[in-house]
Amino acid sequence: MSTKHSSTETVIGIDIGGTGIKGGIVRLETGEMVGERFRIDTPQPSTPQAVAKVVKEIVDELMTRKHAPAADAPVGITFPAIISHGIARSAANVDKSWIDADVDKIFSEELGRDVQVMNDADAAGLAEARYGAGKGVKGTVLVITLGTGIGSAFIYNGKLIPNAELGHLEIDGFDAESKASASARERDGLSWEEYAGRLQRYFSHVEFLFSPELFIIGGGISKRSEDYLPALKLRAKIIPAQLANNAGIVGGALQAAVHFKITK
């Protein structure tokens, strides 16, 4: 499904997670959320049909609002998987029946409008690069989210290089996220000083491989960045993300607007 879209100042973004699906209306010029987010628990089991119905519920609710986008505006959707040409190639924290599913088609048919689906970490990175901590930064920006695992987005001169799975780099014989994620800190009972030591090992390795201009740290643990970021010694600047939990919604909306040429 692809049509010519009416001009619109806002686009709906939907962020699909393992426990919740949330959506909001995003003003494209500024990246600001217009009004409150709307959230519904992720259905269990989180099959394609069940998730698509919840996404439609959220879009229908948002479309009743004063600042809703044009009726034919595309919807941007983030998904916890590797997304290649609209197809899910993995399934993190959602039902395994999503693997190899045509995610674009499933949602566009359910919503009756164009959609653009992207990896959730990529969406957060894109939002930070356009509207947040990475705005205006030239060269390579790496957005790293520290949570249950380690998510990553690779941005070069403001453009997204999709599906960079830097949390799965092998370091010292281990998957990096098994040692340096926020959940690993809690599991192993690490002090902030001990955790900073693990992060130092991880970020030094990533910096050696990619030589970024800037690291942006996201995920819930970014709220405690003063407890560990000052201890890290890197050539690149490293700072916390600005958009917090809205980053996925904002990035998803932006990607849809760019893909369908509503905005540059």
Which labels suit this protein?
5-stranded mixed β-sheet; Nucleotidyltransferase, domain 5; 30% helix; 2 domains; 264 residues; ATPase_NBD; alpha/beta; Polyphosphate glucokinase; 26% strand; transferase
Strand content: 25-35%
CATH superfamily of the largest domain: ATPase, nucleotide binding domain
Structural class determined from secondary elements: alpha/beta
Read across the widest sheet, the strand sequence of neighbours is 3-2-1-4-7
Give the mean pLDDT.
Answer: 94
User: How many separate helices?
Assistant: 7
User: What about the largest sheet?
Assistant: 5 strands, mixed
**Can you tell me the CATH class of the largest domain?**
Alpha Beta
- Shape from CA axes? globular
GO molecular function, one term: kinase activity
Keywords: Kinase, Transferase
Organism: Arthrobacter livingstonensis
Pfam family, one: ROK
